[in-house]
Design goal:
The complex is a heterodimer of chains A (about 300) and B (about 270).
Chain A lengths: L2 E12 L2 E12 L3 E5 L6 H8 L7 E6 L2 E2 L4 H6 L1 E4 L11 H11 L4 H14 L15 H12 L6 E5 L7 H16 L3 E6 L2 H7 L2 E6 L2 E6 L1 H9 L2 E6 L2 H9 L4 E5 L2 E6 L2 H11 L5 E5 L2 H9 L6
Parallel strand pairs in A: 3-8, 3-9, 6-7, 7-8
Antiparallel strand pairs in A: 1-2, 1-4, 4-5, 9-10, 11-13, 11-14, 12-13
Helix pairs in contact in A: 3-4, 8-11
Chain B lengths: L15 H14 L1 H22 L6 E4 L2 E4 H32 L2 H5 L6 H29 L5 H4 L2 H22 L7 H13 L12 H9 L1 H13 L5 H29 L2
Antiparallel strand pairs in B: 1-2
Helix pairs in contact in B: 1-5, 2-3, 2-5, 3-5, 3-7, 3-10, 5-7, 5-11, 7-10, 7-11, 10-11
The chains are: A alpha/beta (about 300), B mainly alpha (about 270).
Bound molecules: adenosine-5'-diphosphate (ADP) and magnesium ion.
Chain lengths: ~300, ~270
Amino acid sequence: MPSIVVAKGLVKRFGNLVAVDGIDFYVEEGELFGFLGPNGAGKTTTMKMIQCVSPKTSGSLEVAGMKIDEKDREIKRILGVAPQENNLDPDFTTYKNLLVYARYFDIPKAEAERRAKELLKFMQLWEKRDVNIDKLSTGMKRRLILARALINNPRILILDEPTIGLDPQSRHLIWDKLRALKSEGVTIIMTTHYMEEAEQLCDRLVIMNLGKIVTSGVPAEIVKEQAGKSVVETNILPKVMKCVKGFKKEKYEKVGEKIYIYTERPRHVLSTLISECELGKVQVRESTLEDVFIRLTGRELKE
Amino acid sequence: MSFIKYFRPPKVSRLAWKVWLRNKDVFAKTYRVSFIPPFLEPLLYLFAFGFGLGFFITTINFDGLTVSYREFLAPALISISIMNSGFFECSYNSFVRMHYQKTYDAIISTPLNIEDVITGELLWGATRSMINAGIIILVVSAFGLVDLTLVLLVIPLSFLGGLLFSAMGMLFSAITPNIESLNYPVFLLVTPMLLFSGTFFPLSILPGAFQALAFIFPMTHLVGITRGITLNSVGMPQFYSLVWVLVATILLTILSINLMKRRLIQ
Ligand SMILES: Nc1ncnc2c1ncn2[C@@H]1O[C@H](COP(=O)(O)OP(=O)(O)O)[C@@H](O)[C@H]1O
Ligand SMILES: [Mg+2]
């Protein structure tokens, strides 16, 4: 599979602040690639460089074989972008938003009308076609932004937090649409800070923290590598800490009042904890991407 | 000096036209409301100054001409409309689109670059000036204050003048910290230009220092050309003014595009 986006030593500075700190990654054609990370990790900044709307400070970045600082218009022609911030045109209706956007891509009027209607149906917005966008719910706005991003039949779709602030139904609807698009061969690059979303959707992902990529790969493999098979989760008490230090093979992470012990032998860990230390609540479960996240960023990702 | 770099001609593509179309579509949607102010404003001025003040001042002598005060006033009203339309479209209105509606952010994710977006905005501002000038021309012709065939020459001029004041408005949009601060250039620049550009009285009656200051105002030159056309007395002063307007338009256009780019592309 050829790579459609390739970044090498990519850096972005805002004055003294290093928002993206020398990252390397590649995205293969047709895959759904995720950027996971807490707020301020540098995800949006990276997306904006791929979109050619924010120049890089140094390093190299190529999209579909073109350098971002040389072929910006050509690159933007093959991209579909759904930004984190709503920037739908409040002066127009739902349908007209798509038509006006199509015009920026030089799409002929008849063709634009055909695509706009098709996309409104695909995104379940057909009933809202003549409504001004201030009358749309948050979920509908996100869907319209996604429809707008598809108006030029993009080869690459860039989605910055596509499901932020949505209820579960709306979120699942968007997930379904993304899967459908992927099966049509569209390359999708998305950022998220929802673990479940990344685990469910992404073929491969990177986790960013403080401008750096801290790990990358297939979600299930990352989990196995970084957090083992299981996690034993309990409250931090002095006796517990003494026990945990006794485990030689296990890695652990303390977050707030909780301690997470990553292990391949949960039964052993659990029985030792129960027999030798006084425990509060304890929980044993399979490791997830969230555990990897906590290990690598030292942060809990609950909103 | 690093400031020189902001005078480098920006790379603009034909796609700028699409931004003009976007604004035209919004205007077409609300044209009934949009047409009322440019129609009423000159009427107010005409009644207050033309008929109010004009009652006391029937004729006026300037540059060796003697004309009625209302004929003296008519080209000034056209010029004021050109200035206001362009300036307000590309200051307050553009700022709202840029800052609150994030319209520019949305457009630069398409093949258009920020230079195209700003150019489209400026061309639209100039168009607004032309539309509003057209309305006033109809009003003042209806009162018999200008010759309708001569005044048609003002239409292309209104586009040029509109571009100049649009660029001036955009320049302030590019450097203003917030929308309230746009009041400063209005009070400190637009209002003085409205009053002291040979609009309501000939500049020659001002003290010398003020005359020199007023001569820097682009509005002075726009009024001079417009009045030359409507009074059918175009000469070298109008030619020099036209050159002045052209140069100022080119410089302000380039500067406003580059400063807007500096603001938005980080
Ligand atoms: N235009 C900007 N000017 C200055 N700092 C910025 C700008 N955009 C982003 N940053 C900073 O860069 C860092 C990364 O931000 P961002 O890419 O938005 O993170 P994320 O999308 O992962 O939440 C943050 O510290 C943010 O404050
Ligand atoms: Mg972000």
